[in-house]
Structures are given as C-alpha cells and as structure tokens.
Amino acid sequence: MNRHLLSINDLTKSDALTILNTAETLARASDGPMKKLPTLRGRTIVNLFAEDSTRTRISFEAAAKRLSADVINFSAKGSSLSKGESLKDTAQTLQAMGADAVIIRHNASGAAHTLAKGEWMSGSVINAGDGTHEHPSQALLDAFTIRKHCAHGNEDLTGLRIAIVGDILHSRVARSNVALLTMLGAKVVLVAPPTLLPIGVDSWPAEVSYDFDSVISEVDAVIMLRIQIERMTEMYLPNAREYSRFFGLDKDRLVRMKTNAIVMHPGPMNRGLEISAESADSARSVIIEQVKNGVSVRMAILYLLLAGTAELEI
87 and 170: one domain? Predict the structure, then answer.
C-alpha cells in the first residue's frame, strides 16, 4: 500500500481486500476480552478536523487508541485554524509535534492531497472527507458491511447490486463508494432526481435511475444518503414532502426489498425525510453496525499504513 490514503483510486483491488481482511481479524480481536493491541505503541496520530464531525472523528480516535497509539484531537473551532492560520502553518506545527499520521477532514476538496505532498510534514495522511471529493474510509466500512451480510463467503462483491440513493451531487461518500464497490465487482445504481446528479455522471462506472420504485426490489443493499436541509431552499428540490415521496425509503418500499437485502446510511440521518423511522429501526437496518465496523476498518487502515506488512500482533 501507499503511505497515504487519500482516495479509493490510491488502492488496488488487492489493497482493498487486504484492508477488509485485516479489519475482519481486528474485529474478532476487538470482540475478545483484550480490546487493546500494542501494535502502534509509541506512535502519535492527529485528528485534524476543520469540519464538524462526530462519527468519523470518534471512530478514528477509538481505532487509534485500540492500537495503543497516542491521539491528539485538533478541532478547527477555537483553534488557530479558525483564527486564520493557513493549512501550511498548521501542518508544520504538527510535524514539530512528531505526528506519525494525520487524519484530516476539510471543507476544501484536495486538502488531504496538499498535505500529502510532503513539503510541510512527513507523516502519513488519511483523508477523512475533503469537500465533495472523497471519503475513502467510509466506503471501505460500507464494503466491509456489505461483504459480511451479502457476499455469502466470497472475498469480493461480484454479483451484488447496490443502490446509492439521494444527494449524489454533493456526496463524497457516493463518489468513494462507486469507485470501491465497482472495483470489488458489484454493480452500482445511482438513484436521484436530475437536480442532485453531478455533471458528467454518465461517465461514472454506475447506472443512473430516476425511479426508486423500479430499483428497490432488485438490489442487495441500499445506501441512503443524507439530504441537507439547506438544499430545499436552493432549487435542488421542490420540498421535503415531495422528495420523501419519490426518493425516501419508507415502509412500503422496505417490504418490497429482496429477502436478505440490507439498509445502510452513513449518518447522520434525517428521519422522516430520506429514511423513515420504520426503515432505520427495522431488522434489515445495519446502520448501527456500520458504526461498529467503522472502528475495525479504521484500525486496519492505521495498522497497514503505519506498521506495514509486519505480522499482526493479537
């Protein structure tokens, strides 16, 4: 693997499977009596979040601590970043602190790539979401969850059909998932109104549908994306009720899904908008499990980037 994880395109299929398989091993270890492993003892990992986040930041923090790394949380609010300090100055400060890895979330697409150039710091860089560009660790945990429930023992996702539904235009989760799921052999269909699809989507390795009802009974997993309420006032959508009627996962669509199909959401959810309470809390829902799987997958990412191919100590 590369020293950094900036994009799904940084990975080969073999790299992606190595992460998923390592995460599987680490998940078994985490379920045991000894949740902490000594693998990254003495390493310093920085969570540099210039954008609000709860799940991703806490997940990476839990992953690092379970590998015995020291963790520094650096939030934009109240920090020098919020006072106008440049990313360059912040990176050089982290370098002086001896950071072995920086996990960065930033509202500017490409911020992680800028850090990874190595001009300002030498540690590994992990992209935890940059603008509307990518969110590779979310895609990896989604693939891990889908493989666990739907792949029937296969190592990859060949033969599976996955729907990603909602605001594709502004979603870094969708971009990373399309790249990874197709790399692993799945067929992806994007379901959204035309106003929430990006220009050039026809060149993506995915089908496009404007009709959720025609897709719902054919997929093995459906990934519902959060609709940002502010989109309602920006001419992307007529109103919340209309969006929910045509593109929300409600009770009626839930019962039409394949017998073993699963419901997913990267969070946070707008209950009653893109997903009903019945769907979010149903037996098909693996949304809470995605959070748990996220820790194991992020442990695997940190381990493979910082400890290389050394034998896993469990």
Answer: no
Burial class (CB in 10 A: 0-12, 13-18, 19+), 78: exposed
Q: Cα(190)–Cα(168) distance, rounded to whole angstroms?
A: 8
The beta strand positions in 123-278, using DSSP E, are 124-130, 161-165, 187-191, 207-209, 221-224, 262-264
Structure tokens at 100: 């072995």
* CATH number of the domain bearing residue 231: 3.40.50.1370
- How do beta strands 161-165 and 101-106 pair? unpaired
| 140 plus 287 within the same structural domain | yes
User: Which string of DSSP letters, residue by residue, matches 241-284?
Assistant: HHHHHHH-B-HHHHTTS-TT-EEE--S---BTTTB-HHHHTSTT
What residue type is assigned to position 124 of the chain? S
- Under 8 Å between Cβ of 18 and 2: no
How far is it, in rounded angstroms, from Cα 98 to Cα 58? Answer: 21
Q: What is the DSSP letter of 72?
A: E
Tokens representing residue 114 in the block: 């800028």
213-265 tens-digit pLDDT? 999 999 999 999 998 766 556 677 778 888 899 999 999 999 999 999 999 99
Q: Are 47 and 97 in contact (CB under 8 A)?
A: no
Domain that holds residue 30: 8-133+294-306
Q: What is the pLDDT of residues 47-77, one digit of tens each?
A: 998 877 788 999 999 999 999 999 998 766 5
Whole-prediction pTM: 0.93
Q: Does 156 lie in the same domain as 273?
A: yes
